[in-house]
Write a structure and sequence with these properties.
This protein is mainly beta. The chain contains one helix and 13 strands, in the order ββββββαβββββββ.
Length: about 210
């Protein structure tokens, strides 16, 4: 991970890619994290974060995307981000970030904490050990539909679920009456991570 005490500014909000004057209100920081993003085709593609602010990010990927595309990105240690492609460059793209002020405030704190760490894991960090569970629990999707899903394993911080429906990585759901985020797809379904604050994400389900 590249670390710097000074914010790094680039011109990611220039759709032409020709280096127009930077009009960002927020500093951008260099931060390297693995992730995946989803396009309109509902498929997941690999990517890696190059730099980020609370209103935009630059990512590298072998996948070619178009300016104006709506995407959902899941980044390790940061979670899900949503926005639009605003610029392409040879090895990736820059995106805007669409978020509430509460989400931006949370993202600011996450970025600062990550910049202060000497090294970061490149894999999902499980806070608690997961144990096999022989239960069927309810998964509620953002559209309100509910599915009764067998549970492969579960801990205080997450669960692995058997389901034919695989919401995109980064999707906020309710599972076992707890707010959670889809963090991984596997052969039998998905893995979810519970929010530490159970009130987090509640606005996602409110009209």
């Amino acid at each position: 991970m590249s670390r710097s005490s000074a914010p790094q500014y680039t011109s990611a909000h220039d759709p032409s890619g020709q280096g127009a004057p930077d009009r960002r209100r927020n500093p951008r920081y260099q931060l390297s994290l693995p992730g995946r993003f989803m396009r309109a085709d509902k498929l997941d593609y690999p990517c890696r974060l190059k730099d980020i602010s609370v209103d935009g990010a630059a990512l590298t990927t072998p996948t070619i995307v178009g300016v104006g595309e709506h995407i959902i990105v899941y980044l390790l240690h940061l979670g899900g981000l949503e926005g639009y492609v605003v610029r392409r460059f040879p090895d990736g793209f820059a995106m805007s970030i669409t978020a509430t002020q509460r989400k931006r405030d949370k993202l600011t704190g996450q970025i600062k904490r990550l910049l202060g760490r000497a090294d970061l894991s490149e894999t999902e960090e499980r806070k608690d050990p997961r144990i096999p569970v022989n239960k069927i629990l309810t998964l509620v999707l953002p559209d309100g539909s509910a599915l009764d899903c067998p549970v492969l394993d579960m801990s205080r911080s997450g669960a692995s679920i058997v389901t034919p429906v695989r919401p995109p990585i980064g999707t906020e759901v309710l599972f076992a009456n707890r707010h959670a985020t889809v963090v991984r797809h596997h052969d039998e379904g998905v893995a979810v991570e519970f929010f530490n604050d159970r009130t987090e994400g509640r606005a996602y389900f409110e009209p």
